[in-house]
């Protein structure tokens, strides 16, 4: 029973504010992809996906779909790594704890409802903003598809 309790604690552990910590310690550097030539690099897959501006489509998220062109974009990124002889290791998060607080879930639901109301009234811009807020978390099905797409392409993928 003690083992199960320790496992339960491990499942819900995560690194909070890692990005902020890394920036404060000046461990984040921006540069040319060429500077990583012939290296093997670890990539936080969800962070990487969130950073891709071309994939931000709140309407696709709201409908539970995948942003159009995702696989083409990922393949383009893989070609850039290959051109520089970079071996990417994509690290995907393990089990994600659900929202811990009822107010957070309630706010997401309210934003989604408001978004659909705006869309029904033809207020596309307002709807898009609300959809973006309510779907700010990456869809787990989307992550699953990318995980398997990368694996099928021969990439090294790990799940924490």
From TrEMBL:
GO molecular function: nuclease activity
UniProt xrefs under Pfam families: XPG_N
Segments forming domain XPG N-terminal: 13-98
InterPro entries reported in the protein's UniProt record: PIN-like_dom_sf, XPG_DNA_repair_N
Gene3D superfamilies assigned to the protein according to its UniProt record, in alphabetical order: 5'-nuclease
Coiled-coil zones: none
Protein name stated in the entry: XPG N-terminal domain-containing protein
Lineage of producing organism: Eukaryota, Sar, Alveolata, Dinophyceae, Noctilucales
